[in-house]
Specification:
Blueprint (H helix, E strand, L loop, with lengths): L8 E6 L5 H13 L5 E6 L4 H9 L5 E5 L5 E5 L2 E3 L7 H6 L6 H6 L6 E4 L6 H7 L4 E5 L3 H15 L5 H5 L1 E4 L3 H10 L10 E4 L21 H9 L5 H16 L7 E7 L12 E4 L3 E7 L1
Parallel strand pairs: 1-2, 1-3, 6-7, 6-9, 7-8, 9-10
Antiparallel strand pairs: 3-4, 4-5, 10-12, 11-12
Helix pairs in contact: 8-10
């Protein structure tokens, strides 16, 4: 079930009057990135729990919360989720091919151009960018794009995160449209992508083996994504994989990789066998070499 967002309007709760400047910065992010979002502001100082309980009773209605540290969260039913990139600091600092399967699969370096075509909460993009690579993050859902843009702005205020934040570009668009525009030269940037990374939505019951119960449990961030988006159809999967392969084939080296993240028990994207796979107990990275 999708989140209810009528007429592009969404409630933004903030907790004290001193946050009006932070609210203005959010409005500027929305305008600068042409996000189809209208914020309906409500100050909830002193009655946060009561107001959030009321929201929870309204079922699939969504809202945003700007807390007293100016962290933006998405509220949906009983869920409250945010990118929280600062919690990944230890992983980002220590990331390498031995510790991160995604980097072993992608084999990127500081001069690589990476396209994370299904950005979600951006955690994989941070690991990819930790190598020094430039990462373009595509996020189709406007609310998720706003969460990412706000988190990038929040983390850019911390000196030890600024270089990493500068390597991330966040765009509110769907992957298939962007792939097409990129090949036509209509995005304003050269099609010189070394790696396309895809982590497409997958049915909620596919993260654990139905017989053994083994596999990844669905955390609250993934649950929130399931409220916002639907898994791609087989035709859409085929289009995603074919277009992604075409994009990396167009770079100046004439070769590249498409890396697909899947639940360990999931079938291959578009039912096409990869050239190589890397996996652990929960997830699998399938590599398609062009």
């Amino acid at each position: 079930m999708g989140i209810n967002l009528q007429d592009n309007s969404i409630q933004l709760f903030y907790v004290n009057e001193s946050q009006l400047l932070a609210v203005e910065r959010l409005q500027t992010l929305i305008a600068d990135n042409k996000l189809p979002i209208i914020l309906d502001l409500e100050l909830i100082e002193g009655k946060i729990k009561q107001r959030l309980a009321e929201l929870n009773s309204e079922g699939d209605k969504a809202a945003l919360l700007l807390d007293n540290k100016n962290k933006l969260s998405l509220l949906s039913g009983a869920l409250s989720v945010a990118p929280e990139w600062d919690k990944l600091q230890r992983r980002v600092v220590s990331a390498g091919r031995k510790s991160e399967l995604i980097l072993k699969a992608a084999k990127i370096s500081a001069d690589s151009q990476v396209l994370d075509a299904t950005a979600g909460f951006g955690h994989d993009s941070l690991i990819l960018a930790s190598t020094g690579a430039e990462v373009t993050m595509l996020e189709q859902q406007p609310l998720m794009a706003l969460l990412l843009l706000s988190e990038q702005q929040r983390m850019s205020a911390q000196p030890n995160w600024q270089k990493l934040m500068a390597r991330l570009t966040i765009i509110n668009t769907d992957a298939l449209s962007y792939f097409t525009q990129l090949q036509k030269g209509a995005t304003g940037q050269a099609a010189n992508v070394n790696v396309v990374y895809l982590d497409p939505m997958f049915p909620e019951d596919s993260y654990q083996d139905s017989k053994t119960g083994k596999g990844a449990k669905v955390g609250k961030q993934m649950q929130a994504l399931h409220h916002l988006a639907c898994p791609p159809t087989l035709d859409e999967e085929i289009g995603l994989l074919n277009k992604a392969q075409a994009v990396v084939a167009d770079n100046k080296e004439g070769h590249g990789r498409v890396i697909i993240k899947r639940p360990q028990q999931a079938p291959y994207l578009a039912r096409q066998s990869p050239d190589e796979s890397w996996h652990n107990a929960a997830v699998r990275f399938d590599g398609y070499f062009v």
